[in-house]
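Suppose you are handed a protein chain with no further information: no name, no annotation, nothing but its sequence. What can you learn? This example shows the usual starting point.
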Amino acid sequence: NEPATALRILAGPRYFWVPLGHRWEAIAALQKALDAAPERNEVRVNALNTLALLASVSVALTAVTRKTNRFDLPTLTEDPGSQRPEDVPEPNAYEAAVEATAIAEELGDPGLIAFSQFRQGFTLDAREHADRARQLILNAHDVFEATNLTSESASAVHSLTRLELTLGNYDVAEQLAKENLRIREKTDHLVGQLTTLDTLARIARAQGDYPTSMSHHRRAIGLAEGTDTEPTVAAYLHTEVAYLAMNLHDPVLASRELGLALGEARNTGHRRAAGAVRLAQAQLAVEDLHFVSAHCFLVEALEIFEDSDDTTAVAYTLGVWGLLQH
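A reasonable first move is to predict its three-dimensional structure. Written in structure tokens, the prediction is:
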């Protein structure tokens, strides 16, 4: 009954709707509240930017992130709340960010303009609009730096890093990521450190440098252990190390890491994380020509993903199963 208040509440957590498992619920509520509260003010700008972020995450989490081993399939990462309800329209991240920027410019608020431009650059497809995305994010970064908004500045550097990684500019991406890691360490921002280490691992992996990639993931595991991080982080990191071990033809290490990942997933009670581990174990079993074990792992993974109505993960699992038949 109070859409303006609803917008303030919904815009507050921003990205954290994702690990909380309520991304699509937040998107639906934001869309409804935005329709009911058309006033062009700061509250609407923040809500639109949050909608743009959640819509961008929606696209990113359902995209193929990488190919693993000899399978033309991605690694499954944790994506709670991944299925869009049929009655919730698919939001357009870029259009939301563009509207937010326009309202911020009407209000004449440099900080709001910068943040909205940053979100606009974040939503653009890097491969099709690299120059435009880079310029928008750099503009925002300069404002954040000038106004001592350290966290926002680091977020902008992280987005630039991922853009350069997507374009294959690995040296630039690595330099930016290392700069960002120094900022995150200086401000003791744990989530930022974990995210940046994961990016450094991806940069190394993209160049075939699996030992360095593994080193970054192990450092992240050390940071995550004993801290109040999102509960499936450790399971994800151990699974990533396992895939790297497969690429290094070290099945013993891969098996050990997957055992640790499965333990973390079970300790948190997160079945989808356990399903992702079982799928990785199936791929390892196929690599070792242990087809009966691979079949058992795939059956369990498929049951988990079907129970959670995760159609994307079901499709991946069936893809591995199809390869197993050959």
